[in-house]
Amino acid sequence: MIAEIGMFFVVHHFIAKFGIRFVFIFSLLAAVLRWALISVASDVLFVIIFSQLLHALTFSSLHTVVLMYIKINFGEKYQGQAVAFYCSFCVAAGGALGASVSGYLWDWSQQGTFMMSSVVAFVATLIAWIYVKHLDYKRVASNN
To answer: Does domain 2-142 have CATH number 3.40.50.1220?
Structure first.
């Protein structure tokens, strides 16, 4: 939790330096690594600590990127609705779906559940790499 809060304080520096698209894709790759590491080495304390730090990175940076995207692409009148949609659809419904699917997978294989999470994060990374081209620092900087 402390690492997440710390990341919220510094993530804007990374976005300013590398761009919003890079931070978005890098965060998704960090999620791929996090889930894979937990899958193969959940009994190693260093791996668990490092994985939690990766969680802090992905949690703070992905939420920041999404909120910046909303700020850029939705007029002031619709930003509240866009945030509500994001929280409802992506955070709540996505979390519920992920928890449900992982609950069923858990009976099959605990290690496999985490590896499947890594695969899903990798697919999300590929989708972002291919389709998310318009997130750049210049648009972010001009709207701050």
So the answer is: no
Cα-trace Rg, the chain: 16
Q: Please answer whether residues 102 and 117 qualify as being in contact, where contact means their C-beta atoms are separated by less than 8 angstroms.
A: yes
Q: Are 68 and 134 in contact (CB under 8 A)?
A: no
Distances (CA, A) of 47 to 28, 40, 42: 18, 10, 7
pLDDT of the chain, 144 residues: tens digit per residue: 788 888 889 998 998 898 888 999 999 999 999 999 999 998 999 999 999 999 999 989 999 988 888 888 888 899 999 999 888 888 788 788 888 888 888 888 889 889 999 999 999 999 989 888 766 544 454 454
Q: Say what the pTM is.
A: 0.83
- Domain edges within the chain: 2-142
